[in-house]
Amino acid sequence: MSESMAGRRACEGARIGVCVLGCLLLAPSGGLAFLPNFWSRVLTLSWDSYTHQYMTEQALLNITLDTLVRMPAGREGAELGRGFWRAVGEVAQANAAMDFLSSTRSDPVYHFDSERVEGAADMLRQFWLQTLLSIRARDYQGARHSLGRLFHSLQDFYSHSNWVEMGQKSVYLHLLHPEHPAIPLASEDTPTCAECSSTTCRNNILLSQHPPLLTTGYFSTHPAKPVGKCSHGGLLDSSRHQGARGGINKDSTSPLFSPHHYLHGDAARLATAATVAVLEDLRDAVGTASFLRLLSVRQQPALVFVMDTTGSMFEEITAARIRAFSIIHARAKTAQQPGTYLLVPFHDPAVGPVYETEDPEQFMRYLEGLTALGGGDEPEMCLSAVQLALTHSPPLSEIFVFTDASPKDAHLYSAVEALTLEKQSKVSFLLTEDRSFSGTDRGMRKRRESLSPNRFSLYSSLSSISGGLAIFTTNSDIHRVSTIIQDNIAASKVTLSHMESNSVSTHFPFRVDSAVNNVTLHLTGILKHCVLTSPSGQSQSLLDRPGSLAHLESFQGLYRVSLLPPIKPGQWRLSADAEGPITLNAIGDSSVDFLYYFAVVANGTHPGLARVEGSPVAGVPTFLVLAVTGLPPNEEASFSHVTLLGASGEILLKVPLNSSSSSSAGKELVGGMASVPREPFCVRLSGKDGRGNRLERVATEMIQPTHVQIQVLSAPHLVPGNVSTVSFDVMNHGPARHFTLTATDDRGFLTQKGPHRLSVGERGSLRGKVEVRTPGGTDPGSAVTLTLTVRALDTADSNYAVVHLIVIPQDVFPPSCSPMRVEATCPPVCHQASWTVSLAVTDRGHSGLAALQLSKGHGVLTLHLGQEGKPWQQEGKGRDTEGEGRQGSEEPHLLEGEPPLNITGWGGGMPLHVRYTASCCTPRAELIAWDGEGNVRHCHFTSSQQGATDKTSNGAGSIKVALLTLISGLLGARLIM
C-alpha cells in the first residue's frame, strides 16, 4: 500500500474534528516508535519519513517477488492477488497496533525503550517462536499477527538505540540469533547522554568506551529515567526535560519529534534490512510452500464445504462430490498455487472432524468417505460446523453449507456472525426443502408441516450479512443449483452488485466495465416477471424466450443468468416482479478489486490512523481506508468516492476519497466521514479507468454500525496445564444500559462461556476478563480462536472481537545474567593482580534454573543465594547425584572444565548471585546457565567491560535450528543431570 499524501491534504482531518498539532502537544504519556502508518506523516508534518507500515510492506513485497523468481515458474503470472494484499495488510496493521493498544503502547519491552534490551530481545524471540508454531498449525492469520508484532519491536531497536550512532552499518544479528556476539549493555550507573537544549541533538551520546556500550532512550516517567541517561526525546516525551535533557530517537525526519532526525534514513534502512533478514530466515525455516501460504500468494480460492450427513442428505453429498470434481479438474489446468480444501461434516450431536488439505485428490477421498446415515429429526449442529469452517478457512473465503435441517445451536449465531465479518468471508446455504415426501422413509426428516416456517431464519440472516445466498431448493435440483459454487470460487472473481428486496416489484442496477469478463447474475426467490436492459436500452424478457443479451437457467429457488458476449460496458438494469423476497448477486471475472477497513485518528503518543476492530461506532468521525488491487501497471485509473449502500441498494452516504500515489499495492485511498450512518451498509467503490469509463466494485458484507465496542487488552500465549487470562474493555457510547457478553472458542478451553450480564454507565466502560484453561497434554503449536461478542438487551447494538491464541511450550524463556559490578584494576604486569565480576542469574520461565557451568575462564565462580555474600546451600546434595564435589554447607564453586552443577534445589524465585574472580592474565570468561526446559544462556564477561554480555539459545547452534527442533521434537533432547 502506498503512503504518500499530498501536503495540501494535511489538515483534512480537521474537517471531522481532528486538531493535529494541538492534540499531539496535549498527548498523554506512553512510548513512541517509528511512525505507525501513512497518516502519521500527515499528523506530524514529516512527509518523507519512513513508517512501520512502509518498511513492513516493502520488505514483504520484495521477499515475495524474490521467492517467486527462485521458483521454476519464475515471474509468470506476476499478479499477486487480492489475498496477498490482505495478508500484507494484516501484518502491517498488527505492527502498527503495537503503538495504539493500551497494553503495548507504553511498555518499554515492546519498543526497546528504557534500556530494556535483554527483555525486548527475549520478547522478539517469543514472537518468532509463536510465528513458527502458528505456521506449523496452519494458523496463518495468527502467524501474521505475531510476525507484525515482531517487526514492530525489531524496527524500533534501530530508532531507539544508539546502534546507528555507533557507526554500525549492518543489522544486529544477536537480537534474533543469540549465537552471534552481543554488544555490552550500559550499566545502570553509567551516564549515557550529555545535555542538549535544542530540537536537534548532535553528538549528545557519551558512550565512547571500548568495546562500545549499547543504550536506548527512556520515555516519559514509566520507568523513571536515572540521571545522566538518554531520553527518547521529542515533543511527546516528558522525560526530555530531565537530565540529561534532549533525546536520541530517529523515528521521523521532523526535529519536533526526533532529536536525531538527521539519522532517520540510516535507522530506517537498517530496520528494513533487519525485517528482510527475518523474512529470509522464516522462508528457510518453514519452506517456500508454507511461506507463500502464509502470505496467500497467488492461491486458488478455498473450496469449503459444510455438510449435513444425516440420512436425508444423499443427493446433496453426491452433488458436492460432482461439483468438487469439476472444480478440481478445471484447476488442474492453471499455474496458481494450491488452495485450501476444507470439509466439515455434522449432524446431531457430532460435529467434525475438520478435514483440511491442499491436496485435491485427498479432498475427494474425504468426500468419498462421507455417508448419509441416521438422523430423521430436526434440528442439527449446523452453526457449530460453520464456526469450525470459518476458523480454519482463509479470509475472503466462500463457504457453502448443505443441509435440510434448522440449527440446534442457535446460541452460536453471534460468534459465527463475528467470524464472517472479521474474515470478510461469505456463507451461502443450499437448503433442500423437498415437500413431496412424508414420514421418515430412508432416513428422511419428519414431516415438515409440524416444523416452524421460520426455522431457517438464522441461515438467511447470516447469508445476508456476509454477502452470500440462501437458496431454498429440492433434492432433484441440488445438482444444478450447486453450479453457483463453481461460479463464485473461480479465480479473479469480483462482485459488481449485491442487493436484496422484499418489494413485489424491484429494479436492480449494476455496472459492467471494460475490465470485467464473464458476467453472471444469481437471483434467489420466485420470479413472476424479469426483464434485463442493456446500457444501450435493448431489453430481453428472461422468463419468456431466449434472447441476445443473456442466457437463463431456472432451478427451484435459483435463477442463473449469463450475459452473452459481446458484453457492452455501462449501466445495466434488471427489473423483476417476485413472490416474496428476492436477492441479486452480480459477479464477473476481473483482477481489479479493493480491500478496506475503518480507522480513527490516534492523536496520542503514537499519531496515526488506528484500525477499528469489530464494527464502527455510529455517529462518530471515522476514516475509511481502501487499497485498490490488481490494476495493470500502465492503468491510469482514478477513484473519486465510495458509496455506503443499504441492504436494498439505497444510498446512505457518499464519501469523497483522497488518493495517494500509485504503489506496488495499487492505490491507497482515504475518506473521512463526519458521522458513520446508523443503518447497516455495504461499501461500493466508484472511479474511472484511463479512458474515462466508470469503474465500480462492491464489498458485499453488511457492516453493522453500533454504539458499543469491545477492545481486547491482552492476548497471552497459552501454556499446557496453565490458565491464561484475556482482558478486555467494553465501551458504551450510548446511554446507561445492560449488555450480555458471550465468549466462545473452537477448542473448548474457556472456563466460562456465558452469557454474562454487564451494566455499563452512560458513555462509560467496564473492564472484564475470560479465562482459558489449556489442558496439560495440549501440543505446542495448537491454535485457538476466541470470539467475544457483546450485545445490548434493549437495542440491536452489538459488537465483537476475535483473538488468535497459540499454545507454546511450558518454558521458552532462557535464564538471564544481569551484570552487577566489575572490580578490576589490572596493572601492566598481569600476574600481580586479579579482577572480579558479580552477576545475578534468574529464570523468567516456569521451569526454574537447572544447572550452571563455567565453560571458559581460569578463575573461580562462587555461588550465593539472595543477598550477595550469603553462601548458597543445597540440602544433602553436592555437584551431582553421585555426590561428586563439595557437600552440605560448603560454599559451591565452579572451575573451568568441570561438568554442569545441578542447582535445581536452589529454592524459589530468588535471584542466584554468582561471583567470578580470576587473574588479570585471563581477562575473559563464559558462564552457561540452563533452565529445566533446556533453554540456555551463554554469559560472557571481561575485565575491561562495565557489564556482562550474554547470548541465548535452546541448546542448538542457532535460534532458528533450536526453535525448529523445539517444534518438531518438543524439546525431546534436553539436559540430563
TrEMBL record:
Domain Hemicentin-1-like von Willebrand factor A: 302-475
Domain of life (superkingdom): Eukaryota
Every VWA7 N-terminal domain range: 78-292
Residue numbers spanned by region Disordered: 867-899
Feature: compositional bias, Basic and acidic residues: 876-896
Principal location class: secreted
Subcellular location as annotated: Secreted
Sequence ranges assigned to domain VWA7 Ig-like in this UniProt record: 707-809
Domain Hemicentin/VWA7 galactose-binding: 493-591
Pfam families: GBD_Hemicentin, Ig_VWA7, VWA7_4, VWA7_N, VWA_4
PANTHER family, A to Z: NG37, VON WILLEBRAND FACTOR A DOMAIN-CONTAINING PROTEIN 7 ISOFORM X1
Name of the protein this chain belongs to: von Willebrand factor A domain-containing protein 7
